[in-house]
Write a structure and sequence with these properties.
604 residues, alpha+beta, 20-stranded mixed β-sheet, two-stranded antiparallel ribbon, 13 helices
Length: 604
């Protein structure tokens, strides 16, 4: 064992970087420790004493390591198919002929091998999480500048690619991170060919407003429904630094308000902290700290003993391209996986940062418990249970992963990533990147030993301030273009970039859906969705839809939200019992039902 010269924590002798702070370790500056057992104790104690300053996390997907890992895999796959300048881009020509690659093959049942080990997908996803997560805290953790080792380069190439996808999403307007935000959305619609439906849509609108100021700990929302000119629903809710309040003026004259923490205590008998929106920035730092800590641990799994580098010709079968480059191949042994999982279990069991993160994602569970809808294990109990399961299965999963011949490869041309490939037995997941003239192609391939093979392809081209591309996919036999888009770079609504997004019915019946994002009235944005060619679907839609020609739905958005705070009689609900809340809910439900019936009855 040796000691990190930066944070003073004890780490394994073979570690090149501290698994706590990410500091590069120099054997000459590290001090040997007498006992491995003592070192493991220190690791657990130091993790248990991790900083407890943040109260809430902006990261809410950490209820379990496996669950977050699966989500990370989804994120990595989504990022992989996003355009270099966009989030949603993809390619391929509709109804293209099947390429002679593995896409149009199905595994022979007689040749099938045993399925993937049950922990393989989470392990692969955690590995991918390392690459995706780098953008949260910068490159300094593992990349080591110009003298980067092959292990560091293996991660850096993937970081650079995936980080570029995230930045493109932010620049185009698909991702946002603000402490203050306002938005008003108004949804309206009309149909062509069916007057019976139009009479309900005329002078009807659904409105939603939201305003948040995390620095003050405030959140306000409201929703309203106007049906044929009559207000049938108006609801307002707020969370103001620990105080909750709501009103439904259309059916009730009261403004119900109470202390969040007191309400929960009265209903559950337990003292629980209220959400503290003021600590959003601190919680973002908490999330970064967790990513850094677990990424550092995960990086120790990749060593010079299980990573090889060779120069050779690479064939990208999915996009049918070849090139000469470097191939990095990571292939861990059973004992390495076992050791990693055991250290992971030790780490999460006593990790106060992770415990807080999970707690912040459990406020909805607290409300369910308060309303008698079930009780969830505490964050500490969840972590202890997860750690126990990981330890118990560490040896078995290590052997299973090695037996499945798990391999993680990347191929690089020059300094550009061209391929990421994860495989086990006959199952392969790969991302391929290439150029076709001025177009960029990014394709995800899934090759399975038990089902058909599939691909999702992304082709796009940037010309001036326009990004044009399409998404296509299939199994090589049935190939369809799912989405065609034309994005105006630099113009965006509170939701997405300006431009047109079109989906056509691949069956050839003529149906088409086109979303146009454009300027609306008074500094607003219209998101106009038109469903056309519907007359061909009369037999499917039934008697009401036999004359239907088209449907137009518009979502108008503005980056302002104005609220008139309810002035009704204030009713303190801090001491309400479960029965009190049940009675209040029934009263509101009955009033709303009556209002709807009155409006609809007047149209008969």
């Amino acid at each position: 064992m040796k000691i990190c010269p930066n944070c003073g924590k004890e780490v394994q002798d073979q570690d090149s970087f501290c698994t706590y702070c990410g500091e590069k370790l120099d054997s000459g500056k590290s001090v040997a420790v007498e006992s491995v057992a003592k070192a493991e104790e220190t690791v657990q104690e130091s993790v248990a004493k991790a900083e407890e300053t943040a109260q809430e996390s902006a990261v809410k997907a950490e209820e379990t390591v496996q669950e977050s890992a699966v989500k990370a895999e989804e994120t990595a796959q989504e990022s992989a198919v996003k355009a270099e300048e966009t989030v949603q881009a993809s390619a391929g020509e509709q109804e293209k002929s099947a390429p002679e690659t593995f896409h149009n093959t199905v595994a022979d049942p007689a040749e099938k091998k045993s399925g993937l080990p049950k922990l393989l997908i989470p392990i692969v996803a955690v590995v991918l999480l390392l690459c995706v997560a780098f953008f949260a805290f910068g490159k300094n953790l593992l990349l080591g500048g110009g003298n980067a080792s092959p292990e560091q380069k293996f991660l850096k190439y993937q970081f650079d690619y995936l980080n570029g996808k995230v930045k493109s999403m932010e620049e185009l307007g698909f991702l946002k991170e603000k402490t203050k935000e306002e938005v008003t959305m108004v949804l309206t619609g009309e149909v062509k060919g069916v007057d019976e439906i139009n009479k309900y849509l005329k002078d009807s609108a659904l409105t939603f407003k939201a305003k948040s100021d995390m620095e003050k700990g405030n959140l306000q929302i409201s929703t309203g429904l106007k049906l044929m000119g009559s207000d049938v629903l108006e609801a307002y809710g707020e969370y103001m630094d620990g105080q909750v309040g709501f009103a439904i003026p259309v059916v009730d004259d009261n403004f119900y308000k109470g202390d969040y923490k007191t309400i929960l205590k009265n209903l559950t008998g337990e003292d629980k902290d209220a959400p503290n929106l003021k600590e959003m920035k601190e919680n973002q730092e908490l999330g970064k700290r967790l990513v850094k800590k677990y990424s550092a641990l995960l990086s120790t799994l990749i060593t010079k003993d299980n990573l090889t580098v060779e120069k050779k010709e690479v064939s990208l079968d999915g996009i049918q391209q070849k090139f000469k480059g470097e191939v990095y191949t990571f292939k861990p042994k059973a004992d390495e996986i076992k050791s990693f999982l055991e250290r992971l279990a030790d780490m999460i069991e006593k990790d106060s940062d992770l415990e807080k993160l999970i707690e912040q994602g459990m406020y909805g569970n607290d409300l369910n418990e308060a309303m008698g809808l079930g009780q969830s294990p505490t964050a500490k109990e969840q972590l202890a249970s997860l750690a126990k399961q990981i330890r118990e299965e560490a040896e078995e999963n290590g052997k299973s992963i090695e037996a499945a011949n798990f391999t993680w490869e990347i191929a690089v041309e020059g300094k550009q990533l061209r391929e990421i490939k994860l495989s086990a037995n006959e199952n392969v997941f790969s991302l391929e990147v290439g150029k076709d003239g001025g177009k960029t192609i990014e394709q995800v391939n899934v090759q399975s030993e038990s089902t058909e093979n599939y691909y999702l392809s992304n082709t796009y081209e940037k010309k001036g301030k326009t990004l044009k591309g399409s998404i296509s996919g299939g199994n090589g036999i049935l190939d369809i273009t799912g989405l065609e888009y034309n994005i105006e770079i630099g113009k965006k609504s509170p939701i997405m970039p300006y431009g047109t997004y079109t989906v056509k019915d691949p069956s050839g019946m003529g149906g088409e859906a086109t979303l146009t994002v454009k300027d609306g009235a008074k500094d607003s944005t219209d998101h106009e969705l038109v469903l056309s060619g519907l007359s061909s679907y009369g037999s499917i839609l039934g008697s009401v839809g036999k004359d239907l020609e088209s449907v137009k739905i518009n979502l108008n958005t503005t980056e302002k939200a104005e609220f008139s705070v309810p002035k009704e009689k204030v009713v303190d609900i801090s001491d309400y019992s479960e029965d009190d809340f049940f009675e209040l809910g029934e009263k509101i439900q009955q009033s709303l039902a009556g209002t709807f019936m009155n409006v609809l009855g007047g149209t008969q």
